[in-house]
């Protein structure tokens, strides 16, 4: 059967989204087709606002409405501390714990030669520039505890060595806000072995 | 733990085979190509969800059928039902433990430990260092999840690092060297952990193979596995020695764009009375060593996992002289449950057998009890 072109177009676009296959895309497109026009307009506007009204914070690369994100703008945050994360979504997980009061820095990925990611493609130089300004006393590196995350943390550690800061790594192997109960034996084993202080 | 029964459906020659097993020795007798090794293959699937010879799942489906299925019941203090169903059309395996579907092989690994002794084991003593690393890694990984994860990390770091070495070689961009240093640090960290654990393991494992070798040979031959990493024996110095060696090789690594230093290049030297087996061993000594390695693996895993593995022995008796074969069949009595395929009926005469052992006769995919 020939599918009407606008429908086919919608399916093609929807199936480009992560974890959406052709079948789910078809289901979503048919659902939208049946929805009220108002609902569809709201969705379209929300999506287009994402690109027009949202930007990356000039300071830390967090998701932001303004030039500076709500964390960087908040006068109550501790400005001597930076927590380095892979993606902006990691900030949301850490903020949920209500344990951290410092600033952030989003790298936008991790080192991975196999997927063509080198230091130049990440916001690493920008982190060094922030440190050079002098008010930072402590850096917490919270990249994921996998091979690439560990190596990225080692690399940053090397770059920051000359600045004489306190550099720590999140307890190795335990996910952010992780509960021992839900971590497997190997993760706990590594967390116990892991040395937390890098510098 | 032992396997109480198995059901094989559309599994190679087995259209529909139901078998009950002895808690002790199960001799599976039949000519070549009659389907006796297939029974071991099915048992191995249940224990690991994988093929014993790394054959693809689709190869195992009976000709003209579109799926195979294996059901098994393991008994311990409790009882576990395992089901593996492979669909040719979906090219997918569906796994169930006690009627509940699971998705990762790691969910059952270590739950139903299994040790195999087959003719392809000759590669461990006669083959390349990679064969010995594979054997040693598999024994340690079965006993330690931390080792397995470190090994996976290490191998991933090797791939990332060699990709970066190639990029530096091709682009001539020396500014990438600081990043190379970070990958080197990561490699040394994971690699040092592997080396330390290999050392601790080999020391312990030597006791196990000495015991097993003695049980099979009862003479003055003493087997020994020697393992050294960059000639450094002090575990606290391994990291530094490793770092230094890799620094010395840096230019060569950059030129060849490959990882030249680390435990991925290790060898384990097998010795009998201080003589290197690979250089001076007789055929019989090689065979006995291979057997001692597998029995050693069995008793090692039994001790660390606190669980008795299932022992699979495929067509090994045919290669042994009468003295060794009868020794081994006695030794098997200490094991627990074992499955032993035999091609030649006459071999059965000198094997040590008792009343609770089973003898299964396999002919063209069907099985009789004797
Ligand atoms: Zn910000």
Structural class of chain B, by secondary structure, is alpha/beta
CATH topology category name of the largest domain in chain B? Rossmann fold
The name of the CATH architecture of the largest domain in chain B is: 3-Layer(aba) Sandwich
Number of domains of chain B: 2
Radius of gyration of chain A: 21 Å
CATH C-level class of the largest domain in chain A is Alpha Beta
How big a fraction of the residues of chain B is strand? 15-25%
Which residue ranges of chain A are poorly predicted, with pLDDT under 50 across at least 5 consecutive positions? Answer: 174-183, 191-199
Broad shape of chain B: globular
N-to-C terminal Cα separation of chain A, in Å? 65 Å
Counting structural domains of chain A, the number is: 2
CATH architecture heading of the largest domain in chain A = 3-Layer(aba) Sandwich
Description:
Chain A has 199 residues and is α/β, with parallel strands linked by helices. Chain A is built from eight helices and six strands, in the order αααββαβαβαβαβα. In chain A, strand 3 (78-85), helix 5 (88-97) and strand 4 form a beta-alpha-beta unit. The radius of gyration of chain A is 21 Å and the shape is elongated. The N and C termini of chain A lie far apart (65 Å). Chain B is an alpha/beta fold. Helices cover 43% and strands 22% of the residues of chain B. Chain B is built from eleven helices and 15 strands. Chain B has helices spanning 36-48, 57-60, 122-126, 129-143, 145-171, 177-217, 238-248, 250-256, 277-280, 283-305, 322-331; strands at residues 2-11, 14-20, 25-29, 67-75, 79-87, 92-97, 100-102, 114-117, 223-226, 269-272, 275-276, 310-314, 338-342, 358-363, 366-369. In chain B, the strands form three sheets. A six-stranded antiparallel sheet of chain B has the order 2-1-4-5-6-7. Chain B has a six-stranded mixed sheet with strand order 8-12-13-3-14-15, with helices on both faces. The longest helix of chain B has 41 residues, at 177-217. At the A-B interface, helix 7 and helix 8 of A face helix 5 and helix 6 of B. Bound molecules: zinc ion.
């Amino acid at each position: 059967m020939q599918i009407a072109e606008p429908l086919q177009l919608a399916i093609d676009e929807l199936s480009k989204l992560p974890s959406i296959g052709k079948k789910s895309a078809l289901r979503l497109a048919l659902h939208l087709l049946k929805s009220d026009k108002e609902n569809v307009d709201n969705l379209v506007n929300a999506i287009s606002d994402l690109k027009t009204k949202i930007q990356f914070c000039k300071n830390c690369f967090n998701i932001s409405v303004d030039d500076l994100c709500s964390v960087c703008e908040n006068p109550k945050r501790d400005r001597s501390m930076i927590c380095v994360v892979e993606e902006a979504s990691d900030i949301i997980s850490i903020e949920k714990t209500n344990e951290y009061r410092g600033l952030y820095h989003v790298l936008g990925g991790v080192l991975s030669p196999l997927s063509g990611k080198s230091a130049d493609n990440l916001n690493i130089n920008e982190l060094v520039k922030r440190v050079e300004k002098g008010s930072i006393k402590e850096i917490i590196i919270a990249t994921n505890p996998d091979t690439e995350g560990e190596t990225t943390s080692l690399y940053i550690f090397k770059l920051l060595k000359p600045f004489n800061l306190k550099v720590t790594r999140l307890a190795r192997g335990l996910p952010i806000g992780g509960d021992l109960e839900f971590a497997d034996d190997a993760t706990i084993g590594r967390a116990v072995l892991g040395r937390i202080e890098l510098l | 733990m032992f396997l109480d029964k198995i059901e094989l459906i559309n599994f190679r020659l087995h259209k529909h085979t139901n078998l009950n097993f002895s808690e002790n020795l199960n001799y599976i007798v039949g000519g070549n190509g009659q389907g006796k090794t297939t029974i071991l293959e099915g048992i191995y699937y249940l224990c690991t969800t994988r093929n014993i010879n790394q054959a693809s799942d689709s190869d195992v489906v009976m000709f003209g059928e579109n799926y195979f299925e294996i059901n098994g019941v393991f008994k311990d203090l409790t009882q576990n039902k395992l089901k593996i169903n492979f669909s040719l059309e979906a090219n997918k395996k569906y796994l169930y433990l006690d009627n509940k579907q699971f998705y990762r092989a790691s969910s059952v690994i270590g739950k139903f430990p299994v040790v195999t002794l087959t003719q392809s084991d000759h590669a461990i003593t006669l083959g390349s260092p990679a064969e010995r690393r594979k054997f040693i890694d598999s024994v340690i990984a079965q006993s330690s999840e931390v080792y397995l994860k470190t090994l996976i990390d290490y191998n991933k770091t090797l791939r990332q690092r060699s990709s970066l070495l190639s990029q530096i070689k091709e682009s001539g961009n020396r500014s990438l060297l600081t990043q190379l240093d970070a990958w080197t640090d990561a490699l040394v960290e994971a690699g040092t952990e592997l080396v330390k654990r290999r050392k601790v393991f080999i020391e312990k494992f030597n006791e196990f193979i000495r015991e097993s070798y003695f049980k099979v040979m009862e003479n003055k031959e003493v087997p020994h596995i020697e393992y050294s990493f960059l000639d450094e024996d002090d575990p606290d110095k391994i990291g530094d020695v490793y770092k230094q060696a890799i620094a010395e090789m840096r230019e060569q690594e950059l030129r060849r764009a490959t990882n030249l230093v680390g435990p991925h290049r290790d060898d384990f030297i097998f010795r009998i009375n201080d003589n290197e087996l690979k250089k001076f061993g007789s055929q019989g000594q090689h065979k006995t060593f291979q057997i001692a390695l597998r029995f050693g693996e069995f008793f090692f895993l039994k001790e660390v996992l606190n669980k008795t593995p299932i022992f699979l022995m495929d067509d090994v008796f045919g290669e042994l002289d009468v003295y060794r074969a009868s020794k081994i069949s006695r030794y098997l009595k200490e094991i627990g449950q074992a499955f032993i395929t035999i091609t030649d009926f006459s071999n059965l005469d000198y094997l040590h057998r008792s009343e609770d052992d089973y003898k299964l006769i396999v002919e063209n995919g069907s099985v009789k009890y004797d």
